[in-house]
Amino acid sequence: MKHPVLSHAPGAAAILLFSFSIHAQQAGPAEDAPERIKSLGVVTVTGGQPTSLPTQIPTTIEGVTREEIDVRINATDSEDVLKYLPSLLVRKRYNGDYNHAVLSTRASGTGNSARSAVYADGILLSNYLGNGIANGTNYAPRWGMVSPEEVERVDVMYGPFSAAYPGNSAGAVVDYVTRMPTKLEAHVSAGYSSQPNNLYNTHQTFNSWQTSASLGSKTGDWSWWLSLNHSDNKGQPLTFATATQASRRTGGVSTPVTGYVPSLNTTNQPWYILGTGTQYHSIQDQAKLRLAYDFSPTLRATYTLGWWQNAGHARSQSYLAGPDGQPVYSGNINIQGRTYTLVPATFPLANDAQTHVMHGLSLKNSPRGTFDWEIAASMFDYLKDQQRAPTAALPWAATGGAGTLQDQNGTGWSTLAAKGTWRPGGMQGAHIVDFGIGHDRYKLAIAKSNVTGDWMSGNMNPQSLVSNVGGRTQTTSAWAQDTWRISSQWKTVLGMRWEDWQARDGYTATAASRQSYPGRSESHFSPKAALAYQWSSDTVLKASLGRAVRFPTVGELYGATNGGALSFINDPTLKPEKSWTGELSLEKDLGTGLARATLFHETTLDALYSQLIPNTTTSRVQNVDKMRTTGVELAYNGSNVFKNWGLRGVDMGGSLTYANSKTVADAAYPQAVGKWQPRVPRWRATAWTSYAPDDHWAFTVAARYSGKQFSNLDNSDVNASTYFGASRYFTVDLRVRYQIDRQWSASFGIDNANNYRYWNFHPYPQRTYTASLKWDL
């Protein structure tokens, strides 16, 4: 569905941002100063817990606090808090989306989750076992390990400009800081959302429930925090059974059917929508325990235990009805005199069962004098990760029968890091030297076999193997960077990161064969540099440059899959992708808000990209020789922007991004040269306005826009507003929050209030109503 505002959205967003700036300049300074104050490009965070991002580096950092989340955002999952930050998109398809909610940044699409780094309290949530959703297995960040209620703040650093982070930070580094109490506090909340969905022949409402409770305190040298979260989520259908009209044949015995929906695919070829697939009902539980002990005023030990469990059921529904009016799921069917065959995979079923455990331990010494240090370790373990599916066709498979079991037991990753900060001249010295070492390990193990007995409860039959893939990668790193305040107007940061990467123990196997792969290793240096100039007391110029090396993930190297709706061919010889990224920013404190204009550029050699092989259902990751992105980003964040006009309580913000992102060279696939990089839109924008007339009420209107984009390297998917397409969108979100008294608050919201239908391979949610009730001690 198109919307007439789309053609004017980029211009409208630019006018809106300009209007914000004018209002802010007319407003007075001082008492309503913004939360972030710019001085030589340094971000000073006031209020709440500080970010763990390297704020001494003069580069772009955007963020949102717990108070802002409560007022402005209908947040049912932790990734929702990112939705209005500049140039970011999380491909969340429904509440509780645990396997495909990957992150997109300025120059990286939603197929490149390994080009961003997501952390919570310093613990890695990004899943570098693979990239995106290339081989039918999910590699989205483990968002479920953080609930929205425990978020104190979240900050984003754009680009690979800190030597402290791996090459996966090419797009952005996201840092969640969760609550750690200083006194007794308790919180309880309950939320509900409802999505009436109308698409093709689906006309149904999908509802979700969520409850959470948390309790924490600090007594003497001990502080602790316990949070629990339970959600019951029903999402809209995500895949569809289709048949191209060109695949029809004549003759043969077939059943005449009705209920199919004529439509066009991404290349504008006629096809029929026969029914739905992968409509998830997921029940999830999450528990988090954080303990901290202060050995002294400057030495603290912290332990984090996270536990997440999911029971997901993916179901299908046929639109087809035979002459007797009963639904048709299998066999030969007749549509307008032509015959099509429904195979078992046409209407798939799957049952998922996961239990993941996360551990984090750190010891930090922060005397804020000459030398600070920290040692941290983390582990993420797939304690249980199974997917069951039938091999028979519906409707009989819904009650049992033959099937397969895919098991990822033993999969996971671990990290170990030590870092320090040396101030040769003390706190007031001109130099701050940061340095560290680290070691990360990743293990992938995916065994898929036929089961003995019922697919819903049978045991794996090792003598009837379907596929078995796995392997390991590890990276050892060392880094250092020097922040030098040259004068009151100039500051520079110079850094270097060294990474030694190894891949080993790779294998792929089927019932008939087994292939083992030799080990590999590579080492690379990644320099970083940044410079800030204090042009005036309220204006700063910043320039940053950094190299990032993103090594192939173990899933891309070894994670082949066979059969099913989508197959994936691995490539153990893939080269790492190497990016140079730069940005130039002008930031101005306008008294009641901060305005920023940023020019950015990225050139990536040997870009790792997964793409369907033409005319097949098989994907292969390939090295694309060269991709280049140049763009501009405008952003504004203002507080009480109309106070000088006699109207108080109005906060406003927004962003506008233009990205010219194209494939420059690709010897293996020349059709892609000169085409737009997949899933990176040319234009995107956000805008929001919140109004709090008193201490009780807060009203927010927010909008998001994304322009035209493609899913294929050759841009052959010209029809984006259909299944498999990646379409433009314009959505408007509403939120009302009421503070009933000191302890009780309630909110009501509508996401996608204009009910825009848009796609990113799968359909996004349509208009969704949300409501929540909270109690705080």
UniProtKB/TrEMBL annotation:
State the species of origin: Comamonas terrae
Q: Family per UniProt?
A: Belongs to the TonB-dependent receptor family.
Q: Where in the cell is it found?
A: Cell outer membrane
- Name used for this protein in its record: TonB-dependent receptor
UniProt xrefs under PANTHER family: COLICIN I RECEPTOR-RELATED (PTHR30069:SF53), TONB-DEPENDENT OUTER MEMBRANE RECEPTOR (PTHR30069)
Source taxon at top rank = Bacteria
Domain named TonB-dependent receptor plug: which ranges?
56-173
Key words, A-Z? Cell outer membrane, Ion transport, Membrane, Receptor, Signal, TonB box, Transmembrane, Transmembrane beta strand, Transport
Main location per the UniProt record: membrane
- Residues in TonB-dependent receptor-like beta-barrel domain copies: 314-752
- Coiled coil (UniProt feature): none
Q: Which InterPro entries match?
A: Beta-barrel_TonB (IPR000531), Beta-barrel_TonB_sf (IPR036942), Plug_dom (IPR012910), Plug_dom_sf (IPR037066), TonB-dep_rcpt-like (IPR039426)
